[in-house]
Amino acid sequence: MRSYSRQLIENDDIEAVISALKQDILTGGATNERFENAICEYSGAKFAVTFNNATSALLAAYYVVDLKKNDEFITTPISFAATANAGLFLGARPVFCDVKPNGLIDEAQIEAKITQKTKAIVPVHYSGALANMQEIARIAAKHRLAVIEDAAHAFGSKSRANEVGSLSDMAIFSFHPVKPITTLEGGAIITNNEDLWQRLKLFRSHGIKKGELWGQDMLRLGLNFRLNDVSAALGLNQLKKLERFINARQDLALFYDEALSEIDELEPVILPSSLRSSRHIYPVIIQGGRLLAKKRDFFARLRAAGLGVQVHYKPINQMGFYKNIGYKPLEGADDFYARELSIPCHQALSRQDARTVINTLKECIRATSRD
Ligand SMILES: *Cc1c(COP(=O)(O)O)cnc(C)c1O
């Protein structure tokens, strides 16, 4: 099955892990700090804090901006559930802002969602394309709100006007195997704010600060969300390859953009040429009519033909849990969910594989429209 995304682990990654396993210190050691420094260097951020996954990183970010019961935060329904769940877990209420036809939060609708209770805006850089951070930063400054970028898809994305993490309080990356680079499980937060950096580090490790000799004190509430040093060693090695991985994804994406122009039923999401996207997801949009009505058949046929297609995402506000607590549908998100299909696009996929993907799409469109 050609998955929509997957890791690429090479021999030098395996060697990096083996030598990390032979170190005296397997967690809480210097390798993790080296990985954090490398993330700073790559992203241009002043500070980086790794986590054992991006979900705990989200929880940490929400915690350190003091998101709590009766607070609200504005986010997008077209994301992985963790974006909203982590805030809900602290007792805050996610307020969903609808998306544009490209799946990104519609910045023009954010301001109308702001109330006395709003504390933060949490845009998601869906697929690796960047939300309109200039506008979001402007709105946040005007209303004195925190901005936390869920950049789980977007490690390595940049545009001329926007480096991830430069127009917000914090940005969060995920190193899950399907994401741009992997540490197996893992995540990180970048920030330019020293106070947030200190608080994130405390939250990650029980709120305990070490002192001289046996001295230590617990200063704040915290948990254990540390990334281990073996994962960090893998991350350090993978990070060296991120540009190569993105170039490979870019190549495939441009090939798909062109190939899809000849398929009436499917439309690519064309990105501005000034944007370098990580291309974590390559979404195609099913045009109206017969194929859309038969998306389930089409999807099943693609899977049977060995294409590990996926749909990103079922809107969070339409998940059973959220419906049960009273969330209502949003038109743009529902339409995007109805039409979207993610096709394989990753660094382990060859150009020949991509041709097979296009041919399989064509065959399955024909077969689906026939019966
Ligand atoms: C993957 C993902 C997360 C969660 O990342 P984990 O590292 O698996 O915890 C959060 N938000 C988005 C948008 C994601 O895609």
| Mean residue pLDDT | 96
Give the strand content.
Answer: 15-25%
Q: What structural class should be given to the helix and strand makeup?
A: alpha/beta
Bound molecules: pyridoxal-5'-phosphate
Number of strands: 17
Order of helices and strands: EHHEHEHEEHEEEEEHEEHHEEEHHEHHEH
Task: Please give the share of residues in helix.
Answer: 25-40%
Largest sheet: 7 strands, mixed
Unreliable runs: none
Trace the largest sheet across and list its strands. 2-10-9-6-5-3-4
What count of helical segments does DSSP give? 13
Radius of gyration over all CA atoms, rounded: 21 Å
Shape: globular
* Distance between the ends: 25 Å
Task: Describe the protein's topology.
Layout: E1 2-3, H1 11-21, H2 30-43, E2 47-51, H3 54-64, E3 72-75, H4 82-89, E4 93-96, E5 118-122, H5 133-143, E6 146-150, E7 158-159, E8 162-163, E9 170-174, E10 187-191, H6 194-204, E11 208-210, E12 216-218, H7 229-239, H8 242-260, E13 266-268, E14 275-276, E15 282-286, H9 290-293, H10 295-304, E16 307-308, H11 320-324, H12 331-339, E17 340-343, H13 351-370
Parallel strand pairs: 1-16, 3-4, 3-5, 5-6, 6-9
Antiparallel strand pairs: 2-10, 7-8, 7-14, 9-10, 11-12, 13-15, 15-17
